[in-house]
Here is the input.
Amino acid sequence: MKVSVVVALVFALALGSEAVSVVKREAPELEKLTQYFQDLSATLTRTTQDIVEKLKAHELTGQAQAYIEEGKTQLQPLAEKIQEQLKPLSESMQAQIKPLADSVQAQLEELWKQVMEQTKALAAPQ
Here is the structure.
């Protein structure tokens, strides 16, 4: 990118030296050439600013990724420790809830049987 800026400046200087000789020969063209160089200078300035902004944005993205990786590295052991501590609690809760769930399931099966029997009794010809 620096090379392209340098090439552009060399190109501008070459055009400038050529323009001086043209200006001497053609005075009415002076305003056109002045405007051309002003436009060229403005374009080079905008392009340089755009490149600098893009480089800064790229640098910020890299820094953000580095911070994320660092945070992930620091949080991984904590997450593993919490998981180890919650595993016994989870197993304990599961052991307490399983008999209740089995009881509810048995009651629902019994209720379903009764509903089916009553439905058959209603549907049976009398």
Q: What stands out?
A: The longest helix spans residues 30-123.
